[in-house]
From TrEMBL:
GO biological process: endosomal vesicle fusion; protein targeting to vacuole
A GO CC term assigned to this protein in UniProt: late endosome
Biased composition (Low complexity): 1-11, 87-109, 126-137, 1369-1382
Segments of skewed composition (Basic and acidic residues): 1497-1513
Domain VPS8-like TPR-like repeats: start-end pairs: 1242-1458
Protein name as it appears in the record: Uncharacterized protein
Amino acid sequence: MSSDSGASHSSAQDNHGDEIANGEGAGDSVEASATEDGGAEDDNVEELQSVDGGTEGLTFARTRRSLAQQQAEDTASELSMNMPDDSPSIQGSAISSPSGSVLVSQSPLRPHRPTSLQPFERRFSSRLSPSPLASPRVQSPAFLSPHSRQSSISSNLIFQQLSDAGSDTPQAPWDVVRWTKLKKISGQVFSEVGKRNFGRPTCLNVTVSLAIGTSKGFILVFDYQQVLKSIIGPGTQAVECGAITALAISADHSTIAGGHATGHIFTWELAKPAKPFLNIPPQDRASLENRKSDGHVSGVAILHLGFLGTRHTALVSADDAGMAFSHLATRGLGALARTVKITRILGRYPLSATSVEKPRKPSSVLAFAPLPLGNVEQPTDDMGLTALLTPYLLVIVSTTPVAQTQHKAPRPKDVEPHSALSACLAWFPAVKLKTPSSDSNIAVSKTKLVYCWSNVLTILDIESIVAPPLEKEKPTELRFRPRSRWKAEEAIVTVQWLSRSVLAVLTISQRLMILEDNTLRMTDSFDLLQKHIYHSDLFSRQLRPVIEQLDEEDTSMHGVVADAFYMSFRAYKGRLFLLGFNDVSIGTLSNWADRLMALMEDGDFIAAIGLATSYYVGDADKLTVGLPEDDKARHVLVQQKLLEMISASLKYTFSQQDHGDNDARERRLKELAEVVFTGLLSMKEFDFLFEEVYDAFEESSAEKAFFETLEPYILDDEITAVPPSVLKDLITFYASANRSSRLEEMICRLSTDTMDLNQVTTLCQQYVLYDALIYVWTRAIGDYITPLTNILELIKLVDFDVDETENVYMTSAKKIFPYMAYTFTGRIYPGGTFMEDGQAYSAKKDMYRFLFSGKSLQWPPGSGEFVLTQTDKSPEPPFPYLQLVLEFDASSFMSMLNEAFEDSFLNGEQDTTNDKQVNGTQRGSALTPTRQSIINILFGIMNTDNFDPEDIIYFYMFVARNLPKYPQHIMLPGTSLQQVLVGLCNYPTETIKEDCQLSVEYLLSIYYPPNPQSLVPLFEKAGFHRVLKSVYRGAHQYAKLLGEYLDDEEDEEAVFGCIADILRPSKGLMKKQINEIKAVIVKRATDLAAVYASQTATTLKQYAPDLLEPVLEAIKDNADAQYHYLEALIEPEKMQAGVTTSIDEDLPEGFIEHYVQLMCTYNSAHVADFVSLLKSGDLRLDPVLPALEKSGVIDAAVILMARDGLIQDAMDRLVKHLGTLETALTGLIGAAAETPDVANTEEAVHDLLEDIQKYVKVGIWLCQGQTLSTERTPESTIDRRKSAYGEVREADLALDELLWLDLVDTSMRLIRDTSTAVADHDAFIISSDIRASDSIDTARIVSTLRSSIQKTFSALLTSTTIPPSKNATVTTSTPESDSSTTRLHPRTQTQSNPSFLRILRCFLTRATHTYSPSLSHLRTVLAEIFAAYTFEETILRLANAFLDKESFEHVHEITELRKRGWRPRGQVCEGCRKRAWGPGAGGGVWEAWEKREGERLEERRRGGEGAREDGAKGRGKRPSQADVCADAEGGGGDEGALVLFACRHLWHRICLENARTVEEGDGLINRYFIIYYCNTFLYKVLRERRRLKKK
C-alpha cells in the first residue's frame, strides 16, 4: 500500500488546487475535485460582507465569490485552508515557533542630564530629550495568551457530512484540531458483529471514498455519509489469501487494489466489486530456483502498494522480505485474458536450503510510495518514479520504460545513535502556482520528497531537465538536491503533506507536529496518545538479527525497531484521518478565519483582535493558517475583518452593564484599547482610531483607558497628529489628573500642523503648561518673543516669600533659562534638536535684541502695548527685561549666559542689519550684540545700588571665567578686572567659596596685577590657599609656601611633595632660605605629623636628616605620632612589605630605646621579634626594662638580658612572671564554679594557657642557648659516673644546669598547684550538681600544662645528650674474611651525659626540701619525665629508620646510574676518524667481543679474580673502555680495543698510544692518556697530578 494514500492523481489535484487558490478561501466539492483541473480555478477578487455571527449581534467576515461558485459552495465553509497557527496546544506545549509573534519593542526610559552644583559647570536641559521618551506600554496578550484557542467550525461539505454525528466528548471551540469520531463507520467496523463478519481493521486509505482493509481479507468502502457502499472480497479467492495488509486507490478513484498477507495482489473496480479486475499471485517458494518470471514469494506479506499514473493495470508493490516489484498488465477481456509483466526493482530472493552463498544482511522496505500526478504535466509523469526506504538506503527508481535507479542516498550520519529504527516518506508532485508571471519555471513548483530516518527529516527537491527537441531520444535527466534537514526529539514513524508548504509529522510517542516546509519551523505540536492509533510490529521479525547483533561501539546501529503507523495515518485535502484500535477519527485543522471566529464567539475579543493583528503584520504563521505570503494579498484578506471585529468588540463591550469590580473593568478596557491601538496602527487607520474608537470610549466615559494607551504611542513618535477635539480632551484629562509633566511631553512631540493654536495656547496658559506653550509658539508660528513675554509676566507674579515647592509659578518661571539657553545655542525647545541655520539666526537675534533692549518695547510690534516690568506703574529702569530676569535668579542667568557665550553667533561677525521679516513684522536695523557689549551692559547695571552682593558675585565669576576663554572678543580695563578680583575675594557665603577661588585662578591666568603682594592679605582673608600658593611660588617665598600648604586642609598631603621640591639639592636655594624653611618645619612639626607622621619621617630623613631629632622633640606630646614617626625611620620595610632589615646606624642616639618604649604601648606583640634582631649594643637596657615590665613584654626583657649576659637575672624574671601567671590561673579556676559568665572565664583561661606555653618556650630557648655556649672539659669515666650517681648539690651545678633546674622546678610547681585547683573545682562541681557544660574545661587545662612539661624535658634530653665523635672508630672482624682482614666502622652509640641525672637529682632534692611532695606527686612527676624520655627515644628511632631507608635508596640509585656507564658522543675514533662501533664497524668487533666475554666467564667460573669494573668512579680520572680492557696494558696489540673517556671521546687504543706525548720522569703518563683538545679532561688530569705529587 502506498504510504501516502491520498497521493493519487485526483487527490493530488484537489490538494494542490487549494494551493492555487491560496488566500482566496474557497474549497472545492467532491465532484469538482474529481473532474476539474486545479489550475483552472477562478481568480476573481474576493469581497467581504458582514453577516450575523453570534447571539450578541457581532459581525464577522465571510468570503463572497462569483455566483456560480457560490451556488456550488452554499454549504461549504468560507476558506479552504484550515491550518494551525503558532500557538501552543491545549496540552500546554510552548510556542514552537522561535520567530512567532514578535513583541512590540520598548525603548528605555529617557535619560535626564544631571545639573551640576557649580553654576558655570551645568548645562540647561528640558524634561524632553531628542530621543523619544519611552513609556511602559503593556503588550497585548491576545496572541501570547497561556492557552491556544482556535476552532475549526468551517469545513468542506464532504467533511461536514462525515462529522454529522458529532464528537463523543465535548471539546473547546479553540482546540488546535477538532477531532470527530466517525461513529457510523466505527459502529459497523469495530462492533462485535463487524469483527465477526469482516475481521479486525488492518489498514486505511482515503480519497473520495474511505476504504478499510480487514484481517479476513475484506475491503470495506464507505462514502462521506458514512454509508457502506461496497464490501469487496466475499465469495472470491481474495478472502482465502489472508488479511489485507496494503491498500491503493487509482488516480480516477474507480479502482482499488489490495495486498494480502500471503503475497497475493487483487485489483477491483468499484463499480463491479463482485469479482477482481486483476489477480497477481505470488511465486511458489519451492520452485524459486526454476522460476520463469519474477514476483513476490508466497507467504510474504505485501506491505506497500500503489498505482502508477492514471493506469489501472500498472502497479508497484513491496513486501516484508525487502523485495519490490513493478506490475504491468496487458489490456484484455477480463482478468483471465490479461497477462502481467513483473519486474524486480529491489531486493533478492531468499536462499534455498542447498545454497552455499554467504548469508545476506537482513533488510526490509520500511517505506514506499510512487510519485502521484500533479495538476500540471511533467516529464516524470511517464517515468513511474517510486521511492523506497530500507534500513540502509533511500532508493528512487524509475519503472518505465525499464526499471532504472535514479538516485541513492545513505542514512544520514546525524541519526541519533542506538535510537528506534523507523522510516517513512511522502511525495508532493509539481503543481501550477497562481503567479502573474508567464514564466513556466516560476509558475510551477518543484517535485518534493520528504523522507525520515529515525528522528532526522530531510526534504529532497527533484528537478527535471528535458532534452532539446533535436535530441528527443535522449532521456529526461533528473537532479536531486537535499534542500533542508530537521531533527525531532524522538523517532518519526510517519509523515504526510497537508499542503504544498505544510507537513504533518507523527512521532513514536504519537505526538503530532505541524511543520512549515520553507523554514522547517514547528508551528504546532499536540498529543494523539488518547486517540489510540492503530500500529503493528511489521519489521522486527525480519530485522531481528540486526538488532540482536547490536554493537555498542557502532553508532550506526539501532536499539529497537519501531512499529508501523503508515497504514493508519492519512491526510487528504488538509484533513487528517486516523485508524485507531477502537474507532476511526477525522481531524480538521483550523484556518485563520475559523480561529478568529471561535475566539469572538467565546467572547474573548482581546485575543481575537490581537491574533488578527498578528495575521495582518505577518508575525504569526501564515502558511499553516491559510494566509498568503504576499503582504498585499494578506492585508486585503485580513483588514476588513479586523475592522469589523474591532467595531463589534467595542459595541459589545460598552453595551454591557458591568456592576462588578471597577478595577477589573478598567483593566479589561485598558487591554481592549491596547489591542485596538496595535491593530489600527498596523493598518494606518488613524481616522478610524480617533473617530469610531474614541467616540465609543468617550460615550462610555472611558477616556482614561484611551488616553493612557495613546500616551506611549505619542511619546514613541508613532502618532504625531491628534485631532483638535481629541487633543482638547487629552489636555483637560491630564491637567485635571495633575499629570501636567507627562502632558507637556506629549504635546511637544505632536505636530503643530493639525492643532487649533488658539485653543492649545489658551489651555496651556490656563493649566500653566509653559513647555508646551513655548513649543507651540515657536514651532507653529516661529515666534520666540511671545513665550518670553508670557514668562516675564509670570515672573512678576512670583512670590519669593513662599516656599519654592509650594509656589505654583516658580517652576514655570524658571523655564525661561533653559528656553533662552536652547534658543541662544540654536536648539528647539524643549526637544533639543538643532534648528536650521536661518531660523536659528533669526531666533537668536530677536531674543538678544529683546532681552538686552535698553527700554520697554511694544509687543506685538505695532500693537501699541508695551511690555512693562514694573507692577506699580513706576518708571521703567534701563534694560528693564534684563534687570527683571537678573533680579529673579542671577545665578541661573549667568549659567545660561555662560552656555550662550559658547555659540559663534556672538563673535561679532554678523553685525549687519536684518531686513528679514521677523514674526510677521519689519524690524528696524540694529546691531547684533557681542560678548563685549553684553559684558559692558552688565557692568553698567550690576552694581550695589541695584543688586545684592549675592547676585553681583555671580556676575564677577562669569566675567572671570569667560575672559580667559575669549580674550580676542572681550577686553576690559585694569580697574574693572581689579574690581572683579576684589569682589571675588569678598564672597558673601561659604557655599560659593570654591567657585570664587576657581574664578580667581581663571582671572589670574590672564590678568597680572601690578603689585600681587598687596593682594596677599585679601587672599588670606578669603582663604584662597591655591591662589596664595601660586603667589608665593612666583615670589620664591618658599617658607610661606610651605606654611600655606599646611594651612590648606583640602590638600594637606601635598605638603610632602612641596618639602621634597624646595629642599632638593638642585633647587639651588640660599642658606637663609633653607634655614627659614627648616624653622617652619620645626615650628609646624605638630601639624606636619598630624597630616602623616610616617611620611614626615621619610621625607625629613631624605631631605633634612638634621631635623629628625628636633621634630621628634617637637611632637613629644603626641605619643602616637612619635611611634609612627620612629617606625618609619627604624622599620620602614615593615610598613610596606613586612620585611625587616638592619637598623640604620646613622639615627640619632636614643631613637631605638624610645621606639621600643612606645612599641610596648602600641604594638607589644612585636617587641620580642624586634629586639631579637638587634645587635649587641644597639639598645641600652636600663631605659627599656621598666617599660617592658610595665607592659608585660617579659619575653623581650628576657632576650635583652640574655644578650647582655644577665642569664640568671633573665631566668629569675621569667620564673617570677610564670608564678604570676600561675596565681592568675589558679584564681580563675577557683572562681570558675561561681562565675555567671562561663564563656568569658573560658576565654581568659585560654589566654593564660597561651601565655604560659609561650614563656615556657622562652625559658627553653634561654636554657638551650646557655647549654650550647658552655664548654665542658672532658671527664674520665670514673668522674662522669661519680658526678652522675654521687651526691650532687645545687652549688656544684653549672650555670646552664641551674637554669634547667629552675625551669623544670617552675614547670612542675605550676602543674602541681594547678592540678590541686582543678581537683577542688571538680569536687565542687560534683557536689553542687552543676552540669559540666556550664563550667570551664579543666581537662584541657591539665593536658596543656602536661604538654609544656613534656616539651621542657624533651628539650632537656636533647640538649644534655653528648653527640658521637666524628673521628671515633672501632675495629671489627667479619667472619667471612681472613683473621688478618679488618674493617673500620664509625661509633654510632651516643655517650652518656651526667647533666640530666644531676639536674634530676637536684630537682628531687629541691622538691623534697621546698614543698615536701607526697609519693603520688613524685610518681606523677617521674611519670611525666619518663613519658617525655620515651617519646623522645621513639621519635629518634623513627627518624633514624627513615634516614637509613632514604640513604639506601640514594646509594642504590647512584649505583644503578654508575652501572650504565658512559655513552660515546659519536661512532668514529677521534684519531683515525674510522667507524669504531655500531653498524659498519665490521664483523671483527663482534667476534672480539664474543671472545672477550667468553674469557671473562671462564675466569669467573674458575673462581679467579673477577673482571675488573669499567672505568673509574665517574669523575674523569680514568677512561672507561667499552667492553674491551681497563688500562693501557690490558689490550696488548688488539687493534679493535676502544678507550672511552668521561668527556665521551672515543679512541682506538692503538690510535691513542700513537698520539700520546711521553714526558721524561713523569709517571702519570703511564697511567692516563690525554686528549689535547678536551679542556675538561685536561683539568681533571692536572688536578690528579697535583694530588700525586703531594704524596
